[in-house]
Amino acid sequence: MEVLDRQETPDGDPRHGDALASGLRLTRDVVLKLWRSENDRNIAVAVEPTVYSVDVILKAAYKFTGDYGVFLTRSADLPGALLAVFIAKDGTVSSDVAHRFANELVDQQIRANLDAQFGPLRTMIVAQAFAEGNLLDPDRDGGDYQADPRGAGHRR
To answer: Which of 10, 32, 72, 88 is the most buried (most CB within 10 A)?
Structure first.
């Protein structure tokens, strides 16, 4: 998005057009690009792999395989972009699919970011939960409770 002064649209009303809020306007690369077949059985949504990883795009597309046939392909019209094509199993494909897919992309990207950030911690917690001893401090397991080598029974 680029910052612009609030401008009136051709109809003279500043509330119409691409304006999101005061001072913000959509640029052409932010708009959701989609194509619909003439019989409404297919919708293709362009996804920019510089914004979402291919793994995230695959996971988001997989969520829709119960209701639609889904495949990913490269776009000849948009160099570098991937097209997620949704094919109706029965009936037609609603354009709502594109919006739900866009939301799923965001959801999967956040999950990937959180996994990258906290995945090692989760692994350690699970490993400790299933371990017989203390993985972080093995010396704590070898003590004699009657001798109280750590002084746990003494007042501080």
So the answer is: 88
